[in-house]
Design goal:
Layout: E1 8-10, H1 13-24, E2 33-35, H2 39-46, E3 50-51, E4 59-65, H3 69-73, E5 81-86, E6 95-97, H4 107-120, H5 133-144, E7 154-156, E8 164-175, E9 181-191, E10 195-197, H6 199-210, E11 213-214, H7 216-231, E12 235-244, H8 245-248, E13 259-266, H9 267-270, H10 272-281
Parallel strand pairs: 1-6, 2-3, 2-4, 4-5, 8-11
Antiparallel strand pairs: 7-10, 8-9, 9-12, 12-13
């Protein structure tokens, strides 16, 4: 299984002008443009007819539409809203780097967003302890969200058809709702049909699906379904037990609380004695 790489898309000046021409050609040469700060202001300036207030504009323009919230916020002005790129239609899940942004790799731009976030909460980003924090934060995300590549190696089972159980597998993940850590241990079991898998691959499967912005229920399901597809076994069972910092550090603030999720496929779901054997093995 291959990891997903952080994806950057460089937008060059040629593409900027081509897309801007498509927009401006829809309007006459007296049209006034208000550019949404920050990138939209640059785009409006390229039209040579920018205005400082949205009320004075005929068209509101931005560099990109991402979630669509900015466009919705400007709907009250009753003006057409244009953008060079609508990420709801193209370049979805890519980090776009426009020519006027600082670093060709996009790395510095990402770090600057972390700086602004720290400043928003009143932190002094120039103090010694925080100077390198944006760089470390981006590096952590880049590393954590890109687990190592590996192959799901399988072998002839040589007639082995009993349950294989791997317990106490540690995993860590980030809650997709709060980007707070959750972590715990997992148990993975399967009953071979014709092929078995290298033992390390069970732990790697859990690592791969947990090292994402996730929820525990989805990890449990994804691990089970991946092994079901790769091994074509008689059954797969996955159980995860974890502590969630989004519940312990904030919100309910209930400490030392464990959440357990289970996914059963094949004979683990349909045959009571098989399910009971699995549950007994992990008590």
């Amino acid at each position: 299984m291959e990891s997903k790489d952080r994806s950057l898309k460089q937008i060059n000046w040629k593409e900027v002008y081509a897309r801007l021409y498509e927009i401006t050609s829809k309007y006459d040469n007296k049209t006034r443009y208000y550019g949404v700060p920050r990138g939209g202001a640059i785009v409006a300036g390229l039209t040579y007819r920018p205005v400082a207030k949205p009320e004075d504009a005929d068209v509101i323009i931005d560099d990109l539409i991402d979630s669509g919230k900015t466009m919705q916020n400007h709907a009250k002005y009753g003006k057409p809203f244009e953008a060079l790129i609508d990420k709801r239609k193209e370049y979805k899940n890519k980090w776009l780097v426009f020519p006027w942004e600082k670093n060709e790799s996009g790395q510095e731009t990402v770090e600057d967003n972390v700086v602004r976030l720290l400043q928003y909460f009143g932190e002094d980003v120039e103090r010694e302890g925080l100077k390198e924090t944006p760089k470390r934060f981006v590096k952590f995300f880049d590393e954590f969200l890109n687990p190592p590549k590996w192959n799901c190696t399988t072998f002839e089972g040589e007639g082995y058809d009993e349950m294989i159980v791997q317990t106490n597998i540690p995993f860590q993940s980030l809650c997709e709702h709060h980007i707070a850590p959750f972590f715990g241990k997992g148990t993975i079991a399967y009953i071979p049909n014709k092929r078995i898998v290298g033992l390390s691959k069970l732990a790697r499967t859990l690592e791969t699906f947990s090292r994402r912005l996730q929820n525990q229920e989805r990890i449990t399901t994804q691990v089970a379904e991946f092994l079901w597809e790769e091994l074509d076994p008689k059954g797969v069972a996955v159980q995860l037990t974890a502590r969630h910092m989004c519940m312990e550090m904030r919100g309910a603030k209930k400490h030392d609380t464990f959440t357990t999720t289970t996914k059963l496929l094949g004979c683990f779901k349909t045959e009571l004695d098989v399910r009971q054997e699995f549950l007994n093995s992990i008590k």
